[in-house]
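Sequence in, structure out. First:
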Amino acid sequence: MIAPILINDTTLRDGEQTPGVAFSLREKVSIAHLLDQIGIPELEVGIPIMGGEEVESIKALVSSGLKAKLLGWNRCRIEDLEASLTCGLHRVHISVPVSDLQIAIKFHHSRWAMLGQLKNCIEFAKSHGFFVAVGGEDSSRADPEFLLEVARYAQAWGQSDFATVIRWADSIRFRAMSKCCD
């Protein structure tokens, strides 16, 4: 059985990573409503751990009556998930490095340390009723067998309705390619 493909729009989070782009609260609400009206089922609305205006805008979107499911982007850290909880989100994306290069930088060369942290975060999210999507940072440079292992662990730790979505994330490669091709 082939799993369905879910479109997740990241404009409200990833769009602001573009140099010179910063959306006002009004712009974020307008963009979210437009995406909702055209039928995008899931919106990644921001990074709650950033605090301040980011939290205000996420809370405004949560209470704006959108049909789309709203998701917060989180590092693989409990404090990030706590921030998502504070914002009133019910869905979280947990971003975790899956290439040896990124694991070396963020987890001191230990795949097991990364997997242990991911397990703790999924269990925390599950215990708070979150739907979890796990994203593999730098997926195209990951060992394919290890990437599959991460997906299997995430699904097993999440069980049934939790951690059933695995996202292939590769913005590092994309940015490198876009710089060389300008």
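Second:
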Amino acid sequence: MAPKIKKKQKKAKKIIVKSKKAYSTAKKTVTKKAKKQNKVKISAKMAGKVTDVKKVKESKPKGLKLVYLFGGKKAEGNGEMKDLLGGKGAGLAEMTNIGIPVPPGFTITTETCNLFYQNRMTPPKELMPQVKKGLAYIEKETGKKFGDVSNPLLLSVRSGSKFSMPGMMDTVLNLGLNDKTLIGLINKTDNERFAYDSYRRFIQMFGNVVLGIDKSEFESILENRKKKQKIKLDTELAVGDLKYIIKKFKAKIKEKTGDEFPQDVNIQLEMARDAVFRSWNNPRAITYRRLNDIPGDLGTAVNIQAMVFGNMGENSATGVGFTRDPSTGQKKFYGEYLTNAQGEDVVAGIRTPKHISSLAKEMPNIYKQLKAITVKLEEHYRDVQDFEFTIQENKLYMLQTRTGKRTTAAAVRIAVDMVKEKLISKKEALLRVKPESLDQLLHPQINPTAVANVIARGLAASPGAASGIAVFSADDAVRFAKAGKKVILVRQETNPDDIHGMNVAEGILTSRGGMTSHAAVVARGMGKCCVAGVENIKVYEVDRKFIAGKHVISEGDIVTLNGSTGEVMLGEVETTEPKLSGGFGTFMSWADEVRKLKVRANADTKKDASLARSFGAEGIGLCRTEHMFFAPDRVPIVQKMILADNELERTEALEQLLPLQKNNFKEIFDAMQGLPVTIRTIDPPLHEFLPDKQEIIKEIEQMRAAGAWEDDIRAKEKILTRIEELEEFNPMMGHRGCRLGITYPEITEMQARAIFSAACETAKNPRKKAPIPEIMIPLVGTVEELKHQKNIIIHVADEVMSHYKTKLKYHIGTMIEIPRGAITADEIAREAEFFSFGTNDLTQMTFGYSRDDAEKFIKVYLDKGILKKDPFISIDTDGVGQLMKIAVDKGRSIRKDIKIGICGEHGGDPDSITFCHQLDIDYVSCSPYRIPVARLAAAHAALGKTEYTQK
């Protein structure tokens, strides 16, 4: 049998896949000497289905330490060594060092994982001697021996990267059991059921994780046996049932692999270790890293630890918890546990666990000890801890501690509370909340007055409200989301393979699991609404439906979730905008104290302007005047202006638009209460205001067929002719922006008149604050273009102010969105009082990418590493950014006090905001809902935070 297993190991090294999962090519990079050790890193990128990795002949330094011990009195590592030991290994070492009861074990370093990928999926030869020493250490600490038939040592083999990746990589428990050690475990514990249950679990996990057999193969055997015996829970299985299941599991492994289940415990350990290393590049781990911006070259550590058992009876248990509520941030002991269970039972959602408070009644002494330990851990780390524990026959062991994932609402509250408790400083508080995560606080809530048909209730696992069509698989969620549908992912319980579906879903609903289940933890991390553990619904994933009482909800039916109350509702239910708490205001005031960048809003309506002010906007950085033309009652007037045969007709149409646009500007000035408002003159090409050409052709054909009046047909034909005249091969680089204003100066004149009339009327109102209009000319490439438009605006401004007998403070500037504009910014600054970078156009013109078509290849570029980031999301600092720097330097060389901002979509991107801070510009402008994000990102930049990798 051993030769077959070795043959299988060799095969696994080349295939590097479990079932049909594709793993990525490993690319070698050698870093500088880190501390006293050389670190070899592998940059792992997805590159399609790969069946081999070329061996890189890189000499390995002698004496490289690959194994670090923990448990007992003193660990070889500590909590600062996350790069080398991973978060879990560093946490185990640190707990050991501060006197927390931790089962003994050792950590195989992340360096070893990188060497494993470098060497064709083969661990370095230096590893095994160090592993043997580690095993000897565990044997000495426990008094047990690995593979011994009379007193067997059993092990857990767990992953652990620098950054928490819950459930994304693999774990094997109860390793070391075989047909012989099973008997020894029975004799030693005098608990036959426990031993057979542990063996059943081990074979099931090993078969799935190590041998790549789909977990459903084992689950169907288990469920069929429970069904036959008419039992519901795994804990109700008798010894005879477990023996039967084990026999079936072994037969399934033989059927699927052609080999017997391995009985050699050392081979078990080697295969499990390598499986954990391979899981670093499984598809779900790669997806999670991409979603959370975690580098792919870090590798995972492997933690090998003596097993402690929560499934030895009613005096044993296992659980997970947080030192504060990860959903709300409330300072209360929070967690769940199951008696007579192992760790995967809690997070997998197979049984709905008990709240941690029940442990105080069942095992009061253990509860007090656990609470004291977790308080100590939070005070030691000065942050919320996510911990795992096992109770074996009334003895408590801590298996893990790490920084707890939490919702943004909880993160803000915890940060504010910990400052009040003098655990952390304001600076630390600000840096603990990722700017982009503030979007979570802006989730809609169920309108309290809405009529809702509540069909089920579960656990309020992650707050917010979401409506969408019910879908029953992660793949279907992705498919429907790509088609533009909002989806609710419905599962019995989610597992790590569902990560891609969870990412696109509006909300997640599970019939099993608790507040610390996979669905709950991942949903909170993503900011997704989640209702978990709804036990009174039956989910039929294969049939794509779930039943809640008398209601049958099939795929495509709309449901609504309230993640704040745990309610499941039929149909779409009305929601309301969120209200930000006092704690949020306190937190954001700290951000405002330290940031240097001002934050403005992109807003075109009174509603958006008011919303922006409520989120802390310090002005408007972009008001798009053309958006005011798209109102249904204005489109006919705009079309009349476009279809005019001469300036007189065009002016008549513009005069009809003037009072409408003036009123819009007055509303915005009122909302901004004296803050600066940057108004861009018309930017898009005129054809955008005309109907679709094909629709007009079709209408003309229908009119002719119906015998319509010739005058009506000629009117339509005139529109068609004008559409054809305005057609452009590349409209984004065509007749738009200042080019329109130069060709049709009456358009610029009308807009300037509307702006200054509105400003004067507002300024003359004693109850209003005088506005500060900033007129911005778009698409300027030469200073002469700006001069032409500026002269028109100044002439109109003087005329209007004279008419209203009032003086206004105003500014005229330009958008820097054409490379030539950036390069000649010194010339332009002689006329412009301010610059605003239009980074959307500047990016497309610098790269030569059409922003409307680039999505066809951008994803491929990202996957292949040609681009590090989508340049339309984060500023390309090496190209576009350098043009911006040229413009800033040249502009200020001529006009020292020139105001400089950014108003493209990048204005709400944290990495782009950091770059803007480094350029020392004055402000960023973004959509109203991104204003809190921008305020915090600006504070992070001022505090020296330069990247937003997950912590």
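Remark: The radius of gyration is 33 Å.
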